[in-house]
Records
---
Amino acid sequence: MNKALVIGTSFGGLEALKTIIPALPADFKLPILVVLHIGDNNNDSFVQYLNGISKLSIKEAEEKDEIKKGYVYFAPPNYHMMVENDETISFSADLKVHHSRPSIDVLFESAAWTYKNRLVGVILTGLNQDGAYGLKIIKDYGGTTLVENPEKAVASIMPKAALTESDVDFVLDLNEISNKLIELSVQDQ
Amino acid sequence: MEQNKSSVIDNIDIEIPLFLEAVFQKYSYDFRDYSKAHVKRRLLHRMSVGRFTSISQMQEKVLRDKAFFIDLLEDLSINVTEMFRDPDFYKSFRENVVPTLKTYPFIKIWHAGCSTGEEVYSLAILLKEEGLLDRCQVYATDFNRKVLEIAKHGIYKTQELDKFQRNYIKSGGKEKLSSYYTLKYGSIKFDQALSKHVVFADHNLVTDHVFAEVNLILCRNVLIYFNRELQNKVINLFHESLIHSGHLCLGSKESLRFTQHEHSFVDIDSKQKIFKKKIG
């Protein structure tokens, strides 16, 4: 069984997440960790809004949070978010990666170290290459990868970069993604 | 292939603790209680830059080559900082900490993990504008001697100057940032009057002890790299070093949660992570 889901997105990501996250059921089996590039702005109002329309609990991650199902953890602005091997969250104020902090690559790579082949990685709409390397690492560890169809995404650069970097398992339109995630959340490896 | 990959990774998780043990035994720098993901990321980076095939191979090198160890220290200490980083913190500091500082005849301040010093000069500017600098003694410490040298000189590249200016204004700065530095050869150099009350010193939070009783401690974005045990140990060290009602300022994503001293401090500004040591 899969153990966790990681999602990375930038431009157009707010809207995309509003489509996907509220469509997931309260008993969704996988904890979700999200990197959304939003510059120096804070997440507060978006997290609150999304929490209001979702069945899962949405929160900005805190240092040393235990990663639990039923929760969606957003990386705070200006920190990289990482998964520790005891399934807790840690942060780093290290250099930006692809001009981004938080960086999708940093989250995906550390999540792959911990969850190995029991990880699902998703890249949605976005305007830079962040996440392509991280998704490849997830694939290298035998995890499952999914990318939003760049032809229909608000911004195609990020999904295209991910598709160029590795062989991705699923390429889906935005409105098909939540059903696929529900399927993957209960599927045996 | 799949099999192969996962067995290499397992080796790495065995090798890293051994590597950190070797570094500790040889050089007395202790990274064993650092966050594992952080250390792994930094060591893998060094491994790839140095074209090593394994951490064990790198261990052999670090035991025999001090210069290589110095490079490694750079990797393991995060030196990303800026003037008035998190301007809202400095704003809150002016409003919530400065009034207490004004009641002290003499103020000792410990800036722990000061890195290349941008935030030390930020603090000095703030103290000067509040009329406090002349009665302050600031101890700015870091375990990395290389960054301390940079901090002492107070010379920085101009490429981030716009950001520094914006931060300074947002932080509630009262003058122009440019009145505190001179511009030369594409660099800025801070007025040495600002660092007249600062002692830059080598101190390692992990292995060194209390060295002074202080009114205020700033330690921002250092604890995030530590595991719970080490966080606890360092907060104890801070608690011991602070006078009663002394202030402790942490990074915006750090907290006293899960430490033994969770209830030994009161929140002054819970968002900006400013705490005050309880009396007794």
---
Amino acid sequence: MRKSFVLLTAVIILALSFLAWRFSKSPDSAPVVDSSAETGRDGETVEVLFWNVFADDTSTGEFLARASEAFMKENPGVKITVNGQGGYDAIAERLEAAAAAGNLPTMAVIEETFLGRFHPIVAELSRYLPDAVIENYQPGLLASGYIGDGLYAVPFNRSMPVLFYNKTKFEAAGINSPPATWDEFRETAEAMSDRENGVRGAALCWDTDAWIFESVLYSWGGDILDETNKKVVFNDGGKAAETVRFFQEMEENGTLFSPYNHQEDPWITVATEVLQGRACMMLGSNGMYSLYSQWMADAGYELGIAMQPSFGDTPSVATGAGNIVVFGGAREEQKAAAGKFLEFLARDEYAGEYAALTGYLPVTKTAANSEKLRAWLSEKPEYQAVIEQMMYAHRRPFTKNWKNMYGVIVEELEACLSDKRADAAEAMESAAAACQKIMDENPD
Amino acid sequence: MKISAVLRSPYALILPAIALCLIFSVAPTAMSVRDSFRSVDYVSGADKFIGLANYRSIFTDDVFLRAFKNSVLFMFGVTAFSVPFGVAAALFLDKNGFIRNFTQSVIFTPHIVSFIAVATLWMFMMDPRYGILNYILGLLGLPPLRWLMDSSTSLLSLAIVAVWKTTGFNALIVIAALQKIPAELYESARLDRSTPARTFFHITLPTLSPILVFLVTASMISAFGTFDIVKFMTEGGPRNSSNLMVYWIYRTGFLHFQIGRAMAGAVILILFLAVVSAVNLALAGRRAHYQ
């Protein structure tokens, strides 16, 4: 009896071990794409699963639904399924899990810096996109899609930090132009502040991935990593501390609103302050332009938009937001179909419509000059400054560790604007040391 | 012995349970231990043996050490309050009557409400600007606190929520145990003119001791493994002041993509909890009175 039990148990353990071995990934196996999308043989429909950052009921979600519908009419052999995944961090997390499970979509929108993480599993795109289409993308936006000479990502919903300001309040105060430098930013904030009535001249959110900090640092002449992408340099010479101290001082003297003293989402808090007239300007993504314009109009204000202030004569700004990648493990016909869809989205009518609809940057040169966008720009002439700002795009950090690193940086940045005991020099020094440790322990 | 007889035997009957346990508990634990000695990257497919490097790395990581220290503090803090509060509430509610039965239901409710709802509720109450807790502090003439947003109060705030949520469950378990204490013991105590305190310390508490051992052990394990309120209420901040072990493991593995380090943290967690449970049982073995 006991022997039989031992035998049965041994059989089960052996079977489990076999299954574990069978389904565990071998060291060099590439993650595979969702098998539900593996079709296309013998003239069957090619299914392309596209993970998008935005929810289906947002303007981007609705735009993609319309565009994919139109694409499928033109290409009856292809079925595009767009799924909103709920944000850049969420999509990165799900892609990680999907890669482990061998269940990747065919293509996805990722925050541009996440190419540093996912490049081992994405396809080189020049095989699937005509040269003319590639050459038509805005060079400043396409740069982050290249690794060496290979193109691995193309721009979709791309943005840059811009200065949003309450034009109505500025005009009432006799200020006719938005600040172009950081000194002017501080002076304007001082002039617009009404401490007795709780009005601050400016509001600042660093962003969940330190994007605003990064961009401000570039405009200060700093950088996150050196040219080799191996050495953390953001606080070399105390540059980051100097940047942070600038805003800390403004917060201390009551001219800057910090959302980090409040429990609500920092972006929503900052936008609400500006919207309700309790703060007069803020840095934010141009991708929010249409939405903020509407909110401000509803509140009885006119929203102004301008380039991010600079430290000297030459501006330097971070690019950001979503690039599209196609996963290398997809079937060849899926990758080809995904390439066709990318080509479709890069057409002037779609790239132009998307920019006008959301305020995101027009990702192609011809879309920027398209009739649709020109008509939109004639109503929003200030937006031209944002398009011009693209020529000052600064390269972003390229490392698989960036997500880990910006988590550390944001912790310290938030503390500097919420905790009176926080010392900017110590905070940035500690963040830089922690980031270097992360990079040293996990080399790319 | 024929195989049909084996299949009808008790061993065969428990095999499905053993198989499920192996698949969903033993195998993942074994894989965690394995991965804790490896450098694993699901995206690039890299997977190589690196010995104790992950352990060396986490023991020199200030964030891990902070999360571990926070977890130990949180575990003792939550247990030190939720178990005595549970016993006190049980003693008060261990009688029949509409009010007490109703209160029993009310006090148990937090346990069955989802942690997300609990967290949302407490976030409203702890809001520095609009929260009722600061309003009450104001009425008492005390300065407002920044609760979840201050590194000196964030862990305490989470502990308050955890105590509030678990006290009702503890009370219910103790009530069930109280109702099993033979009435004759109390009758004898009354005849001997024992004071209520003496009766509690010499009859109630010793008789409850097995269940208290269970509650203390379960409460410590549960508190040390807390994840949901950290994820939803503070994400470990500010400056890791409320970061706990399981959240650190999640963040390291799934947000920072360092599976090997996360698994090393998970192994430390398992070992620590095994030691805590063993110590609890060993200490309690001497003092618990099993009937």
